[in-house]
Amino acid sequence: MIGYLAGEVIYLEAGTAIIEINGVGYEVELAGFKTMPVPGSEIEVHIYTYVREDALKLFAFPEREAKELFEILITVNGIGPSAGLNILNTMPAERFIAAIMEKNELVLKEISGIGPKTAQRLILELESKLVDFHADHFTAGNSAQLEITAQERQDIIDALTALGYQITEINKALRELDLTAEAAVSEKIRLVLSYLGKER
């Protein structure tokens, strides 16, 4: 199975590229690129190999994190490689993850082909999976934030939604606050509650 390629782009059209390596051309579908490569440029990509009875496709990602997110996306019922590719090429990864964690269907429906039912399914199936992924890849500079486990996050959300707060504002507070690793869940709830009180 191919996991990584490095070579020269000799063809590029509509998101499909051919990368030449030692005289062999590999056709790949590009995903998650902020800036597309140009023919003649050297490129390094992480590869997801998709195999089925009638097809073999290589999906190419600029970073390993983008490939990992793609692999998480296609675990969702009804989201295949083409839909996963569309999501990554339509919306920045961090904005997509934030929309999932904040249960923001309106943002998700900005993606072509994502309607209300698909948006709800994405949120339902991805929310818990993306908590750790987001912490690992988007808040690496905040060691305290990495200590918020999925269970702690859910406990905080449950406690504060019971008090009438919306999950979107709770998740915003969790992203903004520098919660200490040693603090008990009750203390974290108090800090988030204090933050929310100032925001209102």
Automatic annotation (TrEMBL):
Keywords: ATP-binding, Cytoplasm, DNA damage, DNA recombination, DNA repair, DNA-binding, Helicase, Hydrolase, Nucleotide-binding. Its main location: cytoplasm. Gene3D superfamilies: 5' to 3' exonuclease, C-terminal subdomain (1.10.150.20), Nucleic acid-binding proteins (2.40.50.140). The keyword Transferase does not apply. Residues 71-90, 106-125 form the Helix-hairpin-helix DNA-binding motif class domain. Residues 63-140 are annotated as: Domain II. GO terms for molecular function: ATP binding; four-way junction DNA binding; four-way junction helicase activity. SUPFAM superfamilies: Nucleic acid-binding proteins (SSF50249), RuvA domain 2-like (SSF47781). GO terms for biological process: DNA recombination; DNA repair. One of its GO terms (cellular component) is Holliday junction resolvase complex. Residues 150-200 are annotated as: Domain III. It is found in: Cytoplasm. The keyword Ribosomal protein does not apply. The RuvA-RuvB-RuvC complex processes Holliday junction (HJ) DNA during genetic recombination and DNA repair, while the RuvA-RuvB complex plays an important role in the rescue of blocked DNA replication forks via replication fork reversal (RFR). RuvA specifically binds to HJ cruciform DNA, conferring on it an open structure. The RuvB hexamer acts as an ATP-dependent pump, pulling dsDNA into and through the RuvAB complex. HJ branch migration allows RuvC to scan DNA until it finds its consensus sequence, where it cleaves and resolves the cruciform DNA. Homotetramer. Forms an RuvA(8)-RuvB(12)-Holliday junction (HJ) complex. HJ DNA is sandwiched between 2 RuvA tetramers; dsDNA enters through RuvA and exits via RuvB. An RuvB hexamer assembles on each DNA strand where it exits the tetramer. Each RuvB hexamer is contacted by two RuvA subunits (via domain III) on 2 adjacent RuvB subunits; this complex drives branch migration. In the full resolvosome a probable DNA-RuvA(4)-RuvB(12)-RuvC(2) complex forms which resolves the HJ. Belongs to the RuvA family. This is Holliday junction branch migration complex subunit RuvA. It comes from Halanaerobium salsuginis. The gene is ruvA.
